[in-house]
């Protein structure tokens, strides 16, 4: 009410100011006329803010008399703010009710505070990423791994090593999500998991069958092996836990960590999802697109990308029997594909020896590079370094979506056999290469994310921490029904349904409960109710309504 | 060449001894934390389910009365004391923390119609069917001293309600007329009447302490100002109101409990239409009391349930019922906002939690943080259908459930008829009467 607002306008009257204040007070009262409602409502806010600022200034002045050379808050660079920005600011319409406006402004202020705090926190991050710079005449791609290993400290140098496993065929590999454990699966049946930094062997078995793919499940306790006929799940000690006959002829697997889903692509064209926390098959989709050999997941929205021999890439979610999107990417078959962790870019390579970069949110082709020999295995690191393997050479490219020429890779390494799988180790500057002669671990400075979040993935976690994390992750497990192209769909307002419901309500009630009544000007005396005056009053209100409907000019 | 490979010193990431806490370095980069919205939604769903899981509102039952409990009163200063009056004339003083009766006073012959405690907390007043108003001491009498009232006022007619002023030594009673009394006098200083011969309830406004409101038997609510000689105005409704309660935070709002199964919140300045109509009971609403925060109120009904309503919503957020609790006659919200007390006609007073899933006692800071986080999550996703369905679901006894369904069908039938009449008559000839306007007959100044 205006009584409360008035108290913001004036300080309380003191007893000696009664006579003097009375005249001034009356003058002020007549100034604030009832027509200037909007202004009188804004003024107390301004005055309140001014008073707050005055208070701040009084705090900033020091007893010594010196002045703060950098008054106010420390500025935050715009890119930093953009990194943490989620969604846009909500434009409050001027016709909204007061309570709605207040609620929105308050929540926006809280979001702003959270944004600024998160942006400022970046100063406190302990580690910095690695880098490799050659001398003036040196190309970084000619630097050998042995030289790098000699140049850095012992611990980092030990990250370059070779495992000579020539007996059991080309090796597929998978790093666990914390980056501590490495799973190797040879084509002829050799499966082993090692802690690659300490070289401790956790388990080593031979399953006596062809292995198509190996994948860690949610932690280092269990892994899945796609064997000749069926899907097997093993314990970290190598004990066979499950043989899942429903999942047959599996060629490729992807684990969706936040949904606890193992997505498998089979030779018969079936894409199946297995919930590993409950042990049930969530969805089996007959893709009818032939042998599914090329598979990748989008870590941002848990969509599975499949590459096909006719050059198309299809995007799948467990809720739909048809692909969500089908893109024609290459003129030959698709050999490999990978998606970056923010879900913005997809890199594909095909039999037409092209390497293409797509914006996967807008489904637009960004760049296309020509590689003299097409890439058979692709992998993107956490910081955006792309590794492409052709034959027995692995090349690492930097700044793939910048659009510059890709003639010179960032780094290159030749291994002893044809490359069968590449995978970056999370949170480390290491690229693992599985090939015909075993496994090679290659140092790629600048590949890994330097600062991990211990509440999400902590490479230094103890057993107790791992157990607690597992319980919390299971409680937060997202249901597969929520997998879609936009993971933030639940936070959006469903305007279409609201409008439909409103229409139905108007029909049912017979009148529109949200509509404002038409303005009927009051009958005024002393000649102020002539037809012309009434029309003018109506126009004024209409003009104000129109002004309210127009979006505001300022931010 | 210049080269730096990412290499972490384990000493910075692993704790030194087992007596330390674990180190938890954080990185708030959104790309490290995908699926924010689905995970929050899952957490909100879990929080809603756990709230229902831990919703055990019944705390204790205070037994000892030998007839139905007709009135309850809070102690003005002490949170653990409660007064109750029964239909056989007994008044009992209870200690809630020990859940025992401190003393029993044979106060009246006949019903104890109303009790109210004085603002200082040293005495309380009772009115009964024997046409007397008695004032009693709050502390127990000494050893072997008989219980005697401090003061007795004999009246000419039965008094049905009493309420004391917030700060002065005056109280108001209602019976055939609304009387304002001074504590030192034996006859009322002022008497209000407006053509009605019986009033059921009188209440002082806790904020604007000179105002009173009363419920009269001619289906009206009358407003008085203690300083004037005549009543201010009255609003006449379709059915009679049983009791009313002023909002302790908003000076001009009060809620009355009506015989037509609803409660109405009025703004005393604009009595033409109620601010809100609260509908959820399936039988007459007998008592209403506001929470000390002024945001919610609790209502007791003849249909053996008590319901908690938010002050601005039309439907209840909570319903409490037990097989053993029969018609609830009186209800009070405790002054620490945590408990609700209900007195029913099967001689028991029950203590319920106001927030059914709240953990009582001292919470650690982590528990508090978890509770606050869960509350915010539930508020954020409260409109999603799955979350809403779980949050709204309450078990009801079978007959109340069936009665609710029947009332809904009746209401739907009436609404359909109104709509058809409106649709098939000349536009403008049949005015649309909103739900709020339907229940008020007239306002008389």
UniProtKB/TrEMBL annotation, chain A:
Pfam families: BING4CT, WD40. WD repeats lie at residues 327-368. GO terms for cellular component: 90S preribosome; small-subunit processome. Residues 15-77, 519-555 are annotated as: Disordered. SMART domains: BING4CT, WD40. PROSITE patterns: WD_REPEATS_2. Residues 39-52 have a biased composition (Basic and acidic residues). Residues 409-487 form the BING4 C-terminal domain. This is WD repeat-containing protein 46. It comes from Electrophorus voltai.
From TrEMBL, chain B:
WD repeats lie at residues 62-104, 278-309, 321-362. GO terms for biological process: female gamete generation; maturation of SSU-rRNA from tricistronic rRNA transcript (SSU-rRNA, 5.8S rRNA, LSU-rRNA). It holds the Pfam family WD40. One of its GO terms (molecular function) is ubiquitin-like ligase-substrate adaptor activity. Its main location: nucleus. PROSITE patterns: WD_REPEATS_1, WD_REPEATS_2, WD_REPEATS_REGION. It is found in: Nucleus, Nucleolus. Keywords: Nucleus, Repeat, Ribonucleoprotein, Ribosome biogenesis, rRNA processing, Ubl conjugation pathway, WD repeat. Residues 354-440 form the Sof1-like protein domain. One of its GO terms (cellular component) is small-subunit processome. Pathway: Protein modification; protein ubiquitination. Belongs to the WD repeat DCAF13/WDSOF1 family. This is DDB1- and CUL4-associated factor 13. It comes from Electrophorus voltai.
């Amino acid at each position: 009410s205006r009584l409360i607002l008035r108290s913001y306008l004036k300080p309380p009257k003191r007893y000696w100011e009664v006579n003097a204040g009375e005249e001034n007070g009356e003058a002020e009262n007549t100034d604030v006329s009832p027509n200037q409602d909007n202004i009188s409502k804004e003024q107390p806010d301004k005055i309140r803010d001014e008073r707050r600022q005055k208070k701040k200034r009084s705090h900033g002045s020091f007893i010594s008399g010196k002045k703060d050379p950098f008054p106010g808050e420390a500025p935050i660079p715009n890119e930093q703010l953009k990194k943490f920005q989620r969604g846009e600011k909500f434009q409050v319409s001027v016709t909204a009710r007061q309570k709605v406006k207040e609620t929105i402004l308050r929540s926006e202020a809280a979001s702003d505070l959270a944004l600024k705090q998160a942006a400022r926190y970046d100063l406190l991050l302990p580690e910095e990423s690695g880098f490799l710079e050659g001398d003036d005449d040196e190309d970084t791609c000619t630097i050998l791994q042995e030289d790098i290993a000699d140049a850095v400290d012992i611990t980092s140098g030990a990250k370059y090593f070779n495992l000579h496993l020539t007996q059991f065929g080309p090796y597929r590999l998978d790093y666990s999500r914390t980056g501590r454990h490495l799973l190797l699966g040879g084509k002829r049946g050799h499966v082993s998991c090692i802690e690659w930094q300490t070289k401790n062997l956790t388990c080593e078995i031979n399953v006596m069958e062809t292995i198509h793919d190996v994948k860690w499940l949610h932690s280092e306790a269990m892994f899945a092996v796609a064997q000749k006929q069926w899907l097997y799940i093993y314990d970290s000690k190598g004990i066979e836990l499950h043989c899942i006959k429903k999942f047959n002829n599996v060629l490729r697997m992807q684990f969706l960590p936040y949904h606890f889903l193992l997505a498998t692509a089979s030779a018969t064209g079936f894409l199946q999802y297995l919930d590993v926390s409950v042990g049930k098959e969530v969805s089996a989709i007959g893709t009818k697109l032939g042998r599914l050999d090329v598979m990748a997941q989008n870590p941002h929205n848990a969509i599975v990308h499949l590459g096909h021999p006719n050059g198309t890439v299809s995007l799948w979610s467990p809720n739909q029997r048809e692909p969500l999107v089908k893109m024609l990417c290459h003129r030959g078959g698709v050999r490999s594909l990978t998606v970056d962790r923010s879900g913005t870019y997809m890199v594909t390579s095909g039999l037409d020896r092209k390497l293409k970069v797509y914006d996967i949110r807008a489904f637009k082709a960004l760049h296309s590079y020509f590689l003299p020999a097409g890439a058979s295995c692709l992998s993107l690191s956490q910081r955006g370094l792309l590794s492409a393997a052709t034959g027995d050479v692995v090349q690492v490219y930097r700044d793939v979506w910048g659009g510059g020429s890709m003639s010179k890779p960032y780094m290159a390494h030749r291994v002893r056999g044809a490359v069968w799988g590449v995978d970056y180790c999370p949170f480390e500057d290491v690229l693992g290469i599985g090939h015909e002669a075993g496994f090679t671990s290659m140092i790629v400075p600048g590949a890994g994310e330097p600062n991990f979040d211990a509440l999400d993935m902590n490479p230094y976690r103890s057993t107790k921490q791992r157990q607690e994390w597992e319980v919390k992750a299971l409680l937060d497990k997202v249901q597969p029904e929520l997998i879609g192209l936009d993971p933030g769909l639940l936070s959006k307002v469903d305007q279409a349904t609201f409008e439909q419901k409103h229409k139905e309500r108007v029909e049912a009630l017979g009148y529109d409960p949200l509509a404002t009544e038409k303005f009927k000007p009051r009958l005024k005396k002393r000649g102020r109710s002539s037809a012309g005056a009434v029309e003018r009053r109506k126009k004024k209100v209409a003009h104000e309504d129109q002004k309210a409907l127009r979006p505001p000019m300022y931010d | 060449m210049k080269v730096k490979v990412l290499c972490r010193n384990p000493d910075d990431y692993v704790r030194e001894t087992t007596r330390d806490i674990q180190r938890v370095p954080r990185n708030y980069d959104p790309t490290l934390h995908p699926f924010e919205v689905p995970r929050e939604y899952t957490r909100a769903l879990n929080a809603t389910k756990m709230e229902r899981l831990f919703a055990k509102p019944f705390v204790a039952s205070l037994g000892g009365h030998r007839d139905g409990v007709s009135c309850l009163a809070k102690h003005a200063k002490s949170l653990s004391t409660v007064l109750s009056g029964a239909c056989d004339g007994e008044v009992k003083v209870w200690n809630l923390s020990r859940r025992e009766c401190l003393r029993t006073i044979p106060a009246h012959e006949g019903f104890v119609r109303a009790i109210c405690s004085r603002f200082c907390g040293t005495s309380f007043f009772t009115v009964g069917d024997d046409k007397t108003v008695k004032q009693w001491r709050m502390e127990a009498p000494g050893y072997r001293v008989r219980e005697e009232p401090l003061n007795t006022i004999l009246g000419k007619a039965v008094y049905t309600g009493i309420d004391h002023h917030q700060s002065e030594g005056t109280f108001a009673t209602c019976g055939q007329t609304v009387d304002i009394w001074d504590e030192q006098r034996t006859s009322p200083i002022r008497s209000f009447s407006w053509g009605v011969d019986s009033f059921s309830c009188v209440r002082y406004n806790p904020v604007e302490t000179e105002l009173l409101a009363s419920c009269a038997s001619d289906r009206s609510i009358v407003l008085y100002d203690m300083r004037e000689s005549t009543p201010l105005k009255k609003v006449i409704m379709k059915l009679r109101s049983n009791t009313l309660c002023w909002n302790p935070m908003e000076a001009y709002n009060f809620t009355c409990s009506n015989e037509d199964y609803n409660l109405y919140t009025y703004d005393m300045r604009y009595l033409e239409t109620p601010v809100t109509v609260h509908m959820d009971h399936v039988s007459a609403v007998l008592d209403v009391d506001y929470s000390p925060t002024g945001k919610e109120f609790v209502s007791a009904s003849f249909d053996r349930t008590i319901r908690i309503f938010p002050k601005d919503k039309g439907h209840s957020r909570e319903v409490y019922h037990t097989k053993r609790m029969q018609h609830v006659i009186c209800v009070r919200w405790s002054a620490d906002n945590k408990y609700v007390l209900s007195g029913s006609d099967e001689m028991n007073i029950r203590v319920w939690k106001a927030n059914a899933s709240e953990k009582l006692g001292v919470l650690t800071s982590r528990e508090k943080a978890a509770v606050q986080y869960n509350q915010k999550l539930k508020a954020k996703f409260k409109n999603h259908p799955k979350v809403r369905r779980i949050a709204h679901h309450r078990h009801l006894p079978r007959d109340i459930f069936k009665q609710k369904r029947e009332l809904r069908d009746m209401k739907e039938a009436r609404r359909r008829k109104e709509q058809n009449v409106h649709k098939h008559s000349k536009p403008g000839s049949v005015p649309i009467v909103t739900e709020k306007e339907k229940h008020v007959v007239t306002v008389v100044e």
